[in-house]
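Exam revision sheet. Question 4 asks you to relate a sequence to its structure. Input first:
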Amino acid sequence: MITVAICDDQSVQLANVKSAVEAYFACRHDFMVRIDIFDDSSSFLDELIKSGGWDIVILDICMPGISGTELAREIRRRRDRTEIIFMSISSEFALDAFAVKAVHYVLKPFTASELGEALDRALLSLSEHRPKRILLQLENGAVQSVDLDEISYIESIAYRRGVHTKRGMFEETKRPLSGFMEEIEKLSPGQFIQPYRGYIVNQDAISTITPGHIVLRTGDTILIKRGDFRKLREIFFSWNFRNGRNV
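Answer key, structure tokens:
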């Protein structure tokens, strides 16, 4: 589900943008979309605070009270991973749009292709930055959603799997370790490795690899198989090089 919010104090413009967004997604059957519309910036801000935001927001820049750029700064202050598209009758605010990392700037009156290009960019950026999440089935029957990037490592503990994250450890009761690795590899190929029986490790959480063990940024250590040091080191270097990091 892609969530979109449109905010414009001009009712005709608001209706036109909503229709154009609906037409855009009607041709893309791989996306489900929810569109919320706001005819004033205050109600947009109230909903942002209450609901936590949207995937894409389309903001008119010049609105009475709170401007579109002020709304965008509030979105960025909250560190939301939201793609922002600005709309304006003038290009004079383009530098302001750049400052809040807007994905596109559309001049009014706009064409369907111009808004379509902006939405294409927004969706591409979302696909590159959208968190990769797995669902954990906990002992009490609850379901916990966890971002893969938050996981340091997973260990097999008797009939449970301990998922160690930045927020603490969760015990998954249903899935075997092989099932974890299969799902994780589909979501983020190459990010996780199995250095030793009973362990899955996030390479982004690794501080050092020695001939005997892996040291994580948390200070935890995990044994590695005898003779696997060189292979694991090469995998680690390759992963970091591919992601533009110095080791």
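Marking note for examiners. The mean pLDDT is 89.
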